[in-house]
Amino acid sequence: MNYMPGTASLIQDIDKKHLVLLRDGRTLIGYLRSIDQFANLVLHQTVERIHVGKKYGDIPRGIFVVRGENVVLLGEIDLEKESDTPLQQVSIEEILEEQRVEQQVKQESEKLKVQALKERGLSIPRADTLDEY
Amino acid sequence: MFRYQSLEDCPLDEDEDAFQTLGEEDEDIDQFNDDTFGAGAIDDDWQEAHERLAELEDKTVTVREQEDGVGSDEMDLLGHHEENLAERLSKLVIENELEDPAIMQAVQTQPPMQQPGGLNSSIWDGSAVLRRIRGPLLTQEMPSVSVLEYALSQRPPQAREDDRDLSERALPRRSSSPVIGSPPVRAVPIGTPPKQTAVPNFNQQILCPKPVHIRAPVQQRYPAPYGERMSPNQLCNVPNSSLLGHPFPPSVTPVLTHLQRAQLLGGAQAGRMSPSQFARVSGLVGNPLASMNPKLLQGRVGQMMSPASGFRAFFGAPPPPAPPPSQQQHPPCPGSHLQNLRPQPQMFRPDTTHLHPQHRRLLFQRQQQNRSQHRSLNGSTGDRAGHRSSHQEQLRKDPYANLMLQREKDWVSKIQMMQLQSTDPYLDDFYYQNYFQKLEKVAAAEEMHGDGPKKERTKLITPQVAKLEHAYKPVQFEGSLGKLTVSSVNNPRKMIDAVVTSRSEDDETKEKQVRDKRRQTLVTIEKTYSLLLDVEDYERRYLLSLEGERPALMEERKQKICDMYDNLRGKTPGQERLSDDHFVQIMCIRKGKRMVARILPFLSTEQAADILVATARNLPFLIKKDAQDEVLPCLLRPFSLVLYHLPSGTITSLLQQLANLPQSATVPVPANLHLAAVLQNKFGLSFLYLVLSRGEELQSSHAATELMQDNQWTELMFMATQELLRIPQAALAKPMSTPSNLLSLFSRYVDQQKLNVLETKLQLVQGIR
């Protein structure tokens, strides 16, 4: 059944496995069960996947209801190609640890940068929570 | 509290009198009165009272339906008070036709409830049943019901105004305007999808005294034997009795949760009572058959059952295809008056009446296709190999599949289609229309050339809505001073009164003047551009218009073209055109140049020539200004087209302008700066070439032509060739195109030696390049 040819509609995507990228940077993988006119999504058997470098870890989350405006992009996962990845899956604890380390490193470098700029009399405008402005 | 047996007991003696009076007053007031605390307060026999009222209601409803009347003084339980208020309000309001749906609709009519689509059983009468079903719930949850009922009663007038509504309403048709204030929170928000039954456990609802079977929407349903079945009249009393007699789990609300009720009402509002909703009603009331035979509960109801029973049913049965299988009714038993008598064999469709008929048909066809697909797939013995069947199998194995029903998908689809409604698609979605037109042209061309099989490319047909003009009339109340300022989505209120005041300062600085002038030019460009877009659109409008309108359209178009030209040349009515200044200003701006290029095809030859001459006259200046933008070359093509039509006299004057010679050339200047500048610019050089080429064309076409005899032309040619020879090759610009007849042109005016020089310099011969 071809719903609305020539348009982008999520109806064809229902009951398929999707990868959803959210605005806060999280990556969710789950079966898309339901949608509505705002592209609010209901994800089933959802797993939050954290990527650090070449490793990733999955945290099972259950059912997600995502408000449409928070979705950056989403795409269907080809189940056959899903396992065909160079990335290495690790345990949750490990990936969280890796993530923490990565955050720390980033923060350190950020701090140094800000320091250097301050010494030169410059400043980076702070990115607010409203990232679209 | 202040009662004492005797005043002597009162310890305080001073305020004896005060207390005495108090006591007397107290004696008058019976604080523990009967109504509050006594027998009058206890409404123990509410069921009987309800039944009485229900009968009364029944009578009034039937009476009302018989006379088909608009009796407004009905003893209506539901929303009785609200109706009174509404009536009073409606009498106050002057304007009866409130066209703005976003504002409270104080007008209320009391039409009989429209027959829900298809159900023509007199017993199974929508309104009556609705009311009765709602009856027991009155005392419990009145506000939410009344609001919805209020809204519900307005559906018929709105249905009449259907064609008007759609242009104003952005909401799905099911909803209607909030009435008095906002609807209570518990009411279903407008725009919620059709909801499934929220009652999870059917198995618990077994305890109904008699098997109730309102209708058999499913072909496999085996209705209870006739004698055991209850009429809908009795049906409604069942919940009452069941409530009494049965230990219903407290979580299960009496008959319907308020949400479901609202759902019912919402569904009725949409124009038809959804049969599946009735199914829910029936299911809820207690369908022992359902519990006994889960397989029968196909469709929504079954899905919500607990995994234990429901999914097993699903594993067994194929996933139910598209809409509820209500269309497949084979009433196997007599007494079918209780069953759903649907005269039309069509399947239940979501409300698609507002969609384009072709789209509706397409949707319907697709649904049918899908159904047949499902059927055939399921029916096959797995002979089909490949991705399709494996996908279907996956879906079948997936116990959570189809949680979103086909109906809900259609509903979302419907909303998305509604968003595409447009009164003027070319205005709203120009690029989309153009893109698809181009695609179609390509496809048509391909089909013409290649005799391959015609590819069925499904096209999205967007619904067309007629444009309707509405003048907003503000709501006025009788006897009030002034107008009620009700602002809504459709008529936003003016919050700020901004008045444009033009500055008339005498001591404006020069910079400001310049800036203002530039701004003025920009405004002119914008205005002219709008005219241009309009004129370009006339062809399409012409095709769409009626015969009678066409002359008028042509006139308009001509007028607009004249306006454009006047704008370009800065001609105000009643003023002799004196300077090129205005035009030059426009040409200094990038957008202006592009606009001139687009306007040129529409102008008459005279006007176009005028433009060309003006350009030539000011070319060095324009070249200087164009240094950054480099947009002048865009003018070349329209210029060349114009040149093709110009007579020799104009050509000569053009060349003259390019060379910047006054009418009577006297002193030959060693170096013609004007011309030099022209030659050093790409556009200038190309333009010159074009002019020369045209001249040559004219010369060669007529044997004895004026051009040859014209001294001016010859002089100009000499000048041009002189300059061309003089200028160093490095300084010479690279022209966009070198016309082929230049060689023969030059050969008339220069000797062989110089000709050779020119040849190499200008790369006039094809081979050298």
List strands and helices in order, with pairings.
The complex is a heterodimer of chains A (about 130) and B (about 775).
Chain A (H helix, E strand, L loop, with lengths): L16 E6 L4 E9 L5 E12 L2 E12 L4 E6 L11 E2 L2 H28 L14
Parallel strand pairs in A: 4-6
Antiparallel strand pairs in A: 1-2, 1-5, 2-3, 3-4
Chain B lengths: L15 H13 L5 H4 L8 H22 L12 H13 L33 H13 L3 H12 L1 H6 L1 H7 L63 H14 L12 H12 L5 H12 L1 H5 L7 H4 L3 H10 L40 H23 L7 H11 L8 H14 L5 H4 L1 H20 L60 H35 L5 H20 L11 H8 L1 H10 L5 H13 L1 H7 L10 H8 L4 H12 L13 H7 L2 H20 L4 H4 L1 H16 L15 H8 L2 H11 L7
Helix pairs in contact in B: 3-5, 5-9, 6-10, 20-21, 20-23, 24-27, 26-29, 27-29, 27-31
Keywords (chain A): Cytoplasm, mRNA processing, mRNA splicing, Phosphoprotein, Ribonucleoprotein, RNA-binding
Pfam families (chain A): LSM
Protein name (chain A): U6 snRNA-associated Sm-like protein LSm1
Describe the fold and architecture.
The complex is a heterodimer of chains A (133) and B (769). Chain A contains one helix and six strands; from the N terminus they run ββββββα. Chain A is α+β, with helices and mostly antiparallel strands and 133 residues long. Chain A has a six-stranded mixed sheet with strand order 5-1-2-3-4-6. Chain A is globular and about 60 Å long. Chain B contains 33 helices and no strands. Chain B has helices spanning 16-28, 34-37, 46-67, 80-92, 126-138, 142-153, 155-160, 162-168, 232-245, 258-269, 275-286, 288-292, 300-303, 307-316, 357-379, 387-397, 406-419, 425-428, 430-449, 510-544, 550-569, 581-588, 590-599, 605-617, 619-625, 636-643, 648-659, 673-679, 682-701, 706-709, 711-726, 742-749, 752-762. With 769 residues, chain B is mostly helical. In chain B, helix 5 (126-138) packs parallel to helix 9. The chains are: A alpha+beta (133), B mainly alpha (769). The interface between A and B is medium-sized, with 19 and 26 residues.
